[in-house]
Structure formats: C-alpha cells, structure tokens
Sequence to fold (200 residues):
Amino acid sequence: MIDSIGSRTTRYAAALALALLIPLAVTATSSARPRPAKVRAATPPAARIFSRLPFLLANRGVHGNRFLPFANTATGIAGVQAAPAGTPCGNTPGLLCSTVVVPLDRTGVVPGTVSLHVETLPAFGVARGTIFLIAGGPGQGSAHVFGLGSPADASFYRYLFPGYTLVAYDDRGTGDSGVLRCPALQSSTTFDVDVEGQQV
Fold:
C-alpha cells in the first residue's frame, strides 16, 4: 500500500515537473530565434478597418474620373460646380461638409445634375497633401463608412495619415448624395441584363 502511494506520488511529481519544464523549454527555444517587432493593437480593431477596404489616393487626381470635382477652386470641367468652403458638421472639430453638383450624364445625352455629399477634415500642422477615403462598395457611401464625424475614427485616420487632409464622399445615389432615378428600369416587370445595361 505504501509502495503504491509512493509510486503514485512519484508519477504526480514527474508529471508536474514535466508540465513546468515544457513552457521553460519553449521559452528558451523561442528566445534563441530572432523575434519580430512588437505590433500594437489598432483601435478601432483591425477587422473593422479591413472590412472597409479603402482605396487611398494620395495627392493626385486622374483626369476624367469622379475625384476631380472636389477641388475647392474652379475645376475647369463643364457642368461641375466647385465645392464651397463647407460648414462644420459631425462631432469632430474642424470637419467640414459641403455639396458638389455634377452632371447626371457627363456626355450631355441625359440632362440634369446630381449632388454629392463631401466631408473634408483638414490636416494638422504642415499640410502634405490630400487623401481620398473610398469604401470598397459598390453601393456604399464612403462618408458614412469612414465616419470622420466621429472623433475616435477621425483621430485614428489622422494617426495613419499625419499631415494629410482627409476627404470622404458619398457616391451618387448613396448616403447623403442625390438619389438616382431610372423610371424605365423601375417600371420594368422583366429584366434583361444586356438591354438594361444599355439603358443605364
């Protein structure tokens, strides 16, 4: 009986010793290898940021695309009204909201205009340029997705892009931008991809 208890105690002690030694061995092994630099957790969480999948355009404009109308000076594009200085909006100090009016159809075949909601957050300190924050979409209003009106979100993006003015806008037909209407498509009872694509 005594031998049985002694042998059980010995097994427990050996198991405990092994349990204590394994972490030490792992630590010793890992310390011998070069360690990657520590990465601080992002706030808001990385999953939230990756879900937005922005295309970041730094200090550039591509002729003929939708980014040019956001200049605060004359655009030189027919039918595009330059954005006004903007009015304070949201809860982030310094955030300005404005409306840019652009042609509904740049070819002129379809008359009319549509308004675009634009939010601009000026850079702190020395300005390095402008970055447009564009949600992956389609069908997302970037201004609402990035939430520059939230001080926490605004601080995060300013931390990522120090010295850059941040601009986010709602695509036509999304968020606070003008609604798009297509009576022929809305009244249709059937849908043909090729036909409807030509009408749009």
